[in-house]
From TrEMBL, chain B:
Residues 27-221 form the MacB-like periplasmic core domain. Keywords: Cell membrane, Membrane, Transmembrane, Transmembrane helix. It comes from Halorubrum californiense DSM 19288. Pfam families: FtsX, MacB_PCD. PANTHER family: ABC TRANSPORTER PERMEASE YTRF (PTHR30572:SF4), MEMBRANE COMPONENT OF TRANSPORTER-RELATED (PTHR30572). This is ABC transporter permease.
């Protein structure tokens, strides 16, 4: 069964009296253990699609299913709850909190669940991405590649079913990008999760199991 | 290795604390604003408490007094002995002190001269307190002198003063705070010093606790005076205390109002600081929301920041105000520790409560605004 499914998803925006159709009847799915890459020119709706897969945005029409459950009509707080338990995010700009240590940044998504202590899992994840000697460093003391690895560890701390990556290698050089992609490929298998990435990066496409091309809000197959 | 932060069990508090630590100057300035507000409220409140205590202490001696003197229609040049008997009958348990008065010039051996009013009476112990010496024998032979004049003339206990050709030994120096005219310049002599006067200039009735000064006044008035004839003039000072009391309440309200304005200004500053810092952290808060932190948790985190500012500013303000209070009470009353009586120390509590309340209210809007930002939009820029 697919982890995340979009059925005939349509997204329309109203801007200045004009209606813009960002997504037009998009069907999408991602399964456990696969890396799906979404490519396409700027303004093709890649970010809108990723936001919808990440339950950050809801479609104007169509359905969204997470692990078989229809979450389309969930409230803001219910969607937040789903993101917290089932989805991990990796951003192009890492988006780590500068005043928290690497370990605390990894714990962040679960920080408010005071009854479950994810400290051990956070440390273990940081070990796994090769940052065992950077646990108490704060983001400004880390390199770009190290920051992105902290971000990946953060995306996995809640044991998600799907990990979403928005240009994960966009700010990294070729070599560092390759290590990050090796890391993601290993984690995809060991954690048995679906990875959905949005990119312009040819290198990332090589690591993908499947590529989806988006043009003008529709999927080119 | 995995050392836990002490606030780990309170994630909103931990995050708020870390956030405040990011821009220390801004945090310090916002805290300073609150501190000034608390000091304004608390020290103005404590100042009125000090003034009130001082006024109460000064007025205490007056509030139970009824003074009877000759009215315009009195046939005599004062109150006669018979009238004193009548007053005593009307006064019941109250102490009745008839007195004669005059003015004289006292001179010292060193040539210094001073003009004082002279009061001749019995029962001086009921009317006066001495700071040095004593009032023995109900003042049958000695004299009491006000502190200022004793100092000016270099007169000590046991020294002689002359009035009307007779010598009296000073046996007590009057305490300086005595009634409304605390620094009255007066020489107190036995009644016999003015035996040449037939009438008394005034009669003071000292009401016992529980006796109504107003009723006593009315009784004496109605038994001597008629609608057409004012034989005696009867006055009491209860109204003075009431007037001073209500004046002080107004003063206190006014001063607390001024103090509150500074706290309102401080909370506007907090509002500004919190709005700025949430706008700056817009993307960051978007990330929090994206990774599954709920709106309520974001709201609590930012509200906690505002509350921390209020608590830190409030605590520092209370410490500073307590210092100000001690200095105020030392200057106004001469007893610094009176600052910690409830009457004044309550303003420290009010200052603290106001500080926390004002900063919480100021934090509400920024917190609500940040919590309800859509993460998609916050992450876009």
């Amino acid at each position: 069964m697919s982890v995340i499914v979009l059925e005939d998803a349509i997204k329309r925006y109203h801007t200045g009296g004009e209606i813009i159709e960002a997504l037009d009847s998009v069907n999408f799915r991602a399964d456990r253990g696969e890396m799906v890459t979404i490519i396409g020119p700027s303004g093709s709706g890649k970010s809108t699609l990723l936001n919808m897969i990440g339950l950050l945005d809801t479609p104007t029409a169509g359905r969204v299913r997470l692990n078989g459950r229809d979450v389309t009509d969930f409230s803001t707080d219910e969607l937040t709850e789903e993101r917290r338990s089932d989805i991990g995010f990796v951003f192009q700009d890492y988006h780590l909190l500068p005043m928290l240590t690497a370990t605390e940044n990894v714990e962040l998504p679960t920080m408010w669940d005071t009854e479950v202590d994810r400290r051990d899992r956070a440390v273990e994840l940081l070990n796994r991405v090769g940052l065992s000697d950077r646990l108490t460093h704060k983001p400004p003391q880390l390199s770009g590649g190290q920051r992105q690895r902290v971000a990946i560890a953060r995306a996995l701390v809640n044991e998600p079913d799907v990990l979403l990556a928005d240009e994960p290698t966009g700010n990294l050089d070729q070599d560092t990008g390759a290590t990050i992609l090796d890391e993601l490929t290993r984690l995809k298998e060991s954690e048995n999760i679906a990875i959905v990435a949005v990119t312009h990066d040819e290198q990332l496409v090589e690591y993908s199991d499947r590529v989806v091309e988006l043009v003008d809000g529709t999927i080119n197959t | 290795m995995s050392r836990r932060h002490p606030l780990r069990r309170f994630p909103s508090a931990l995050m708020a604390w870390r956030n405040l630590g990011r821009n220390r100057v801004r945090t310090a300035l916002a805290t300073l604003g609150i501190l000034i507000g608390v000091v304004a409220i608390a020290s103005l409140g404590m100042a009125t408490a000090a003034i009130q205590q001082q006024a109460t202490a000064n007025l205490e001696g007056l509030s139970n007094e009824v003074t009877v003197s000759a009215g315009p229609d009195n046939p005599n040049d004062g109150i006669s002995a018979d009238q004193v008997d009548d007053i005593e009958r009307l006064a019941g348990d109250a102490t009745v002190v008839p007195e004669r008065s005059n003015v004289t010039t006292l001179s010292a051996r060193n040539g210094a001269e001073t003009r004082v009013s002279v009061t001749a009476l019995t029962k001086a112990d009921a009317m006066y307190n001495v700071s040095r010496g004593s009032i023995s024998n109900r003042l049958r032979s000695g004299a009491l002198l006000s502190q200022a004049d004793a100092r000016r003339l270099g007169i000590e206990i046991g020294d002689p003063v002359t009035y009307d050709g007779k010598i009296y030994r000073v046996q007590g120096i009057l305490s300086s705070s005595q009634g409304i005219g605390g620094q009255q310049r007066v020489l107190v002599l036995p009644l016999s010093a003015m035996d040449n006067q037939n009438y008394y200039d005034s009669v003071t009735v000292l009401a016992e606790p529980g006796q109504s000064v107003e009723a006593l006044t009315a009784n004496i008035e109605s038994s001597f005076n008629t609608a057409d004839e004012d034989i005696v003039r009867v006055r009491n000072f209860a109204f003075v205390q009431q007037n001073v009391g209500s004046f002080l309440s107004t003063l206190r309200l006014g001063l607390l109002g001024i103090g509150s304005i500074s706290l309102v200004v401080a909370s506007v500053a907090i509002l500004n600081v919190m709005l700025m810092s949430t706008v700056e952290r817009r993307g960051e808060i978007g990330v929090l929301r994206a990774v599954g932190i709920t709106r309520g948790e974001v709201l609590r985190m930012i509200l906690t920041e505002a509350v921390f500012l209020g608590v830190i500013g409030g605590v520092l303000g209370v410490v500073v105000s307590a210092g100000v209070g001690v200095i105020l009470f030392e200057f106004l009353l001469g007893s610094p520790l009176s600052a910690f009586r409830w009457q004044s120390v309550q303003y420290l509590l009010y200052g603290m409560v106001f500080a926390v309340a004002a900063s919480s209210i100021s934090g509400l809007y920024p917190a609500w605004k940040a919590a309800n930002e859509r993460p998609v939009e916050a992450l876009r820029d």
